[in-house]
Amino acid sequence: MSLSPPSDIASSQPAAATDGHRNRRLGPDTVICHAGRDPSAHFGVVNPPVFHASTILFPTLAALDAKAEAKVRYGRRGTPTTFALEDAVSALEEAAGTVLTPSGANAISTTLLAHLDPGDHVLIADNVYGPCRHCGNDVLRRFGVEVEFYDPLVGSGIDRLIKPNTRLIWMEAPGSLTFEMTDITAIVAAARPRGIVTVVDNTWSGGVFFKPLTLGVDISVQAGTKYISGHSDLMLGTISCSETSYERVKGFAQRLGICVGPDDAYLAQRGLRTISVRMRQHHANALELANWLAKRPEVTRVMYPALQTDPGHELWKTHFTGASGLFGFVIRETDRQRLAAMVDGLRLFGMGSSWGGYESLLLPTDPRILRSATTWREPGQCMRVHVGLEDVSDLIDDLERGFERLGR
């Protein structure tokens, strides 16, 4: 079988094949393996090469005069390395186009600033990733944007919060730290007839288990630092857009001079090729660990929509085809010294702010400091765990010993 042109794969169109099955759509795992690649353009090299470039030379004055039409015309505006990653992520997210940014936080701020002007009103879910809240409070308000945080469980009640000057609604599925599920379909149904842009932070699913744009969402944002990278060694943000949003976001990002280094783009594309198999293993490991935690006497609550006992489970089943390795749980009230005894002695769970890599992480959290429209009242110590790709029996043994130290 010969590879189809990258554009066929990147746009999720049926791919041509030598056996005549021209109308057969490629499966999602196949798309992830092949989107954005064109070995025939690079002497048969499997992975797109790394182009380190700022200056692009034009052979004639006529070519220079026509450079606005050239795909490659200045390093900041993109090279074959970054174009390949954009095409691959667009295929993953089923998007019209993707804009790359240097971090997930920058993807958030770029998306918000590209759509909001002084006097506009934006609705942001109260359980969003911290940098999204900080951008709203510390940046948008300074520019005269009216920022309002809403209960992520509002569902169709979002209709009551929409104002004549509402321009954008931000969602995160599930929410940061406490993992509530938002009724995305209901919010899109309220926003779309009014021309309000809807955005979902889709980092938790990696773009594998959830496709927001297929539900009518305008933009899917990811911290590519997490699952797209998969190896805890690069910073990246992705903004995957519908056809109506792409040119606006792309133009705004270019005017701000936003670009991604070629080595990071190469590593991200390399990580992307295995994202499907990694995500399935994260799901399997996390589900087993979550069920184990739910039976522990030290644990009062597990916050993981993939669990049947989770309040958001039915919504999760409606939107998602799987779950990632990130979730939360609450342990009974304890002092800092006992908590330190638990986490300091862990062998396999590291303490670090990121997640999405192959390794497991565990952090104490405090959702109360990141709420304004709602109040977090759950007693006990919140924990955020990222379940990596280790043998889950070893992770359970490590945590079991940690709980023993906690109880001494």
UniProtKB/TrEMBL annotation:
Recorded GO MF terms: cysteine-S-conjugate beta-lyase activity; pyridoxal phosphate binding
Extent of Polar residues compositional bias: 1-15
Highest taxon above the source species: Bacteria
Name of the protein in question: Cystathionine beta-lyase
SUPFAM superfamilies, A to Z: PLP-dependent transferases
Cofactor needs: pyridoxal 5'-phosphate
Region (Disordered): 1-29
Family: Belongs to the trans-sulfuration enzymes family.
Catalysed reactions listed for this entry: an S-substituted L-cysteine + H2O = a thiol + pyruvate + NH4(+); L,L-cystathionine + H2O = L-homocysteine + pyruvate + NH4(+)
Annotated source species: Bosea spartocytisi
Any single GO BP term: L-cysteine catabolic process to pyruvate
